[in-house]
């Protein structure tokens, strides 16, 4: 049996994704009930960060601790990766000492190359093209509040970035309709739109996307590494703010999500995080629980492979 990784949502089947979401809900219940559950005592996760993070680092590190294991934080400043050691060499060495690795980096090819030489499961904790861990948390949040997302309508409003790409894949995996509203020049890559045309539609305005939506999602206008484009993007995205007026166009029980950090007064109105249908804080917490379910799945699959 081949070693399992989680580099994009499509590395797992829909059945496996749903199992992880349900397991995340169960692990959340255990944690809220103060139940000690430590199946991975002695297991160690390596956390490679070439991009800074709050939620990703806290959720993975806390999750491994709650599982009875531990996590090692590795930044490019502290390792030979940052000094030009080939990714393939680093992967061979690092994975020989660990039980699982997560990587938060820039080019998606970096996690692909690392995974191809790794002896243990590799998790994509964000690349320029994908953010699949956030989607696990988002889907878990939707399921907790509204039940199955299958057949629902989701509106992505804003930049056609890595989050948007993962929502496109999610629409395919979970069988929902995705309407994307992005300013001209900021749409998702055509390769994603073409491949998933059966479940994804590019619409002309934020309002078009919001109409009859069951979930509205957005992200910052300028992602990490795009700060110098801030003023240009503010002008381009001026008509793509998610606000109370936009929510009124959606179904009355439409949820609102944002992967955070949020810039109030830019991609969202000042009070949008406090909207009655906003579930952003649950969504943020669910990074912990969904990722614990993912880590459990991957470690156990690897143990099966070696049995």
Provide the low-confidence segments as ranges: none
Name the CATH homologous superfamily of the largest domain: Aspartate/ornithine carbamoyltransferase
CATH hierarchy class name of the largest domain: Alpha Beta
DSSP helical segment count: 11
**What average pLDDT do the residues reach?**
95
Note the topology.
Layout: H1 14-32, E1 44-49, H2 55-66, E2 70-75, H3 87-95, E3 100-104, H4 108-117, E4 122-124, H5 132-146, E5 153-157, H6 162-174, E6 177-181, H7 190-195, E7 200-202, H8 206-210, E8 215-218, H9 230-236, H10 244-247, E9 255-258, H11 280-306
Parallel strand pairs: 1-2, 1-3, 3-4, 5-6, 5-8, 6-7, 8-9
Helix pairs in contact: 1-5, 1-11, 2-11, 3-4, 5-11
EC number: 2.1.3.3
Family: Belongs to the aspartate/ornithine carbamoyltransferase superfamily. OTCase family.
Keywords: Cytoplasm, Transferase
Quick gist of this model?
The chain is α/β, with parallel strands linked by helices and 307 residues long. The chain contains eleven helices and nine strands.
Please describe what this structure looks like.
Keywords: Cytoplasm, Transferase. Its EC number is 2.1.3.3. Belongs to the aspartate/ornithine carbamoyltransferase superfamily. OTCase family. Pathway: Amino-acid biosynthesis; L-arginine biosynthesis; L-arginine from L-ornithine and carbamoyl phosphate: step 1/3. Pfam families: OTCace (PF00185), OTCace_N (PF02729). The chain has 307 residues and is α/β, with parallel strands linked by helices. It folds into two domains: 5-131 and 285-304, Aspartate/ornithine carbamoyltransferase (Rossmann fold); 134-281, 3-Layer(aba) Sandwich (Rossmann fold). The chain has eleven helices and nine strands. It has helices spanning 14-32, 55-66, 87-95, 108-117, 132-146, 162-174, 190-195, 206-210, 230-236, 244-247, 280-306; strands spanning 44-49, 70-75, 100-104, 122-124, 153-157, 177-181, 200-202, 215-218, 255-258. The strands form two sheets. It has a five-stranded parallel beta sheet with strand order 7-6-5-8-9. Strands 2-1-3-4 form a four-stranded parallel beta sheet, with helices on both faces. Helix 6 (162-174) links the parallel strand 5 and strand 6. Helix 3 packs across helix 4 (108-117). The longest helix has 27 residues, at 280-306. The protein is globular and about 55 Å long. The model has no long low-confidence stretch (mean pLDDT 95).
